[in-house]
Amino acid sequence: MSRRKMAVVLAVVCVLMAQAVVITLTVRAAGQARVEKVVRAERFELVDSRGNVRAQLRLLLGVSPELGLRDKEGKTRASLMLLPDGRPGLDLCDKDGETRARLSVLPDGDPVLAQVDKDGKVRATLSLLMPEGPGLALSDKRGKARASLRLLADGSPGLVLWDSEGKLLWSAP
Question: Could you give the strand order of the β-sheet that contains 88-93, starting from the edge strand earlier in sequence?
Answer without folding.
Answer: 43-47, 53-60, 64-70, 76-82, 88-93, 99-105, 111-116, 122-129, 133-139, 145-151, 157-162, 168-172
